[in-house]
Structure formats: C-alpha cells, structure tokens
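Researcher: Good morning. I'm working through a list of sequences from a screen, and I'd like to move beyond sequence-only analysis. For each chain I'm collecting a predicted structure so we can compare shapes side by side. This is the next one on the list. No need for commentary yet; just the structure.
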Amino acid sequence: MDRINNNFAKFLMWMFLYLSAYIAVALSIRHLSEFFNIIEIVAIRSAGSLLVAGVVLAKSGISLNSKFSFHEVTRSALHIVGSLAFVWSLVNMPVALVSTIEFVGPIFAALVGIFVFKNKMETYPRIGLALMFFGIVITLALNNTSDYGYILLVALSAVCILTVTNLMLADLAKTESSSAIIFKMHLVQLPIYVILLFFIYPDWFQSVRNVSQNATFSTWIGIAIACFALIAAGYVTQASLASASRYGSPLQLCAADVLRLPMMAGVGYVAFSETIGLTLLLPGILIMIGSIMTSLPSR
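Model: Good morning. Structure tokens for this chain:
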C-alpha cells in the first residue's frame, strides 16, 4: 500500500507539472497563430524541444541509442498528425468545446485496453468512464455542434491519435529516458515539418518576411516571449508526461491527461473571453469527476 501511495504521489506531481506547462503552451499557440501558420508554430516547438533535449542529454551524460525502432518512428509520425489536428481545432473552435471533445481520450484508451490487451478494469475506472461518456453525450446533445462540421471530426481524430501516442509513450518510458524520447521524436519530426512547410505553404518565407517588416518592437517582444514559452513549456509537457507514465497505468495517464481540458476552458474564459455556458459547465463537471475517478490508483 505504501508503494502504491508513493507511486501515486509521484504520478500526481509530474501530472501537475504537465498540466501547468500545458496552459503556457496553449496560450503561446493562440498568440503565435496571429502571425504564423500552424505548421510554422509546431516547427518552432519541435526545433526548440530538439535543442533543449540535446542540451539536457549532453549535460546529464545519458547515453543515447542511435538506432530508431519502428515503435519510435511510428509514434513520432502519429504524434505529428495528432498535434497538427489538435492545434488546428484549437485555433478554429472554442477552447471549451475542444476540451469536452478531448475527454473521449480515456474512453478510447479503455476500449483499446479491453479489446486489444484484454485488460480488466476495477469499479472506480468503470464508474469514471461511464460518467465521462454520459457527460460527453449530454454536451454534444445540448450544444449546436453542427456549425463546426468536419472541424469536429478533426478534433475527435486528434483525440484518438494522441491517445495512441500516450499508450506508446508508456511503453517507451520503460527503457528510454524522457530526454532521449523527446530528442529522438523531434529528430524524426522536425524534417517532416520543414518538408510540409515547403509543400503546403510554399510562400511561408514571404509570410515570415511580412511579419518582420510590419511588426513593431512590442510585437516582437510578444512573439519572442510566446516562442520561449512554447519551447520551454513544450519540453516540460513532454518530459513530465513521460515521467508520469512510469508511476501510473496507461489508463490513469490518459484520464489524468485530459484534466488539462477544464483548466483550458478556464483559461479560454479568462484570457479570450470565451463564455462557458451551463450546457458546457454542468456536463463538464460530470466529466471531470469521472476523469478523476478513472485516474485513481488501483487498490
């Protein structure tokens, strides 16, 4: 019991750090989206995370396995697709609605665990997932989601894809350090982002030039702060999530991961004046209770 409590305390510590850093990432993305396209933003994050992870590895003396497994390459590729879909939906939908949709993650993780890995769930996770499911259904029924059409499908796809990467991360963390996982992931991702920039946004350099020509000194300060927050907090989110996966089950990780979403809804209300109506607030509370119950340690 002491070991369970100790592991859960460490799990909570890393997840709190993750949740806090995630807010900084979301705020940075919103600010930078006024000046750069989505791929430029994730490329900045990728390049910064690669640099930070490389410095950490060099300073710590942690050995790095130069070989890339199929598991690592696949996770990196899936993470690209999920991240782009999530960032795009975050820019094009209210934060509170994106938050609600992302609660599908733990339910998807539970289904994967049951049907693929033949896992069995205890009572608390079952009740928690049921509460989350009903909360999501109520939210979608009470809110006019038809206005968003395919954007809603993109957000749902992002949830499922990123949930799979979380499950894969839990497996990688058993044999790799957090910095090594991040370094190798961005070593795969950064060239892909650069290629995507040239194919999808062939005039991306011109758009950057326009920003540099029209931006005032205060605008540049804001961009610099947002870039620094995106890179630093982005690294912290990935490192803390990898560390948390060592002290909790994959289902716990996915359930605790989505607790960032009610926090994001609060940030959307405070920072962007996005109102949170009762049709989102009440089922959101139900979903949050379910998420907490699902993330509790096994008895």
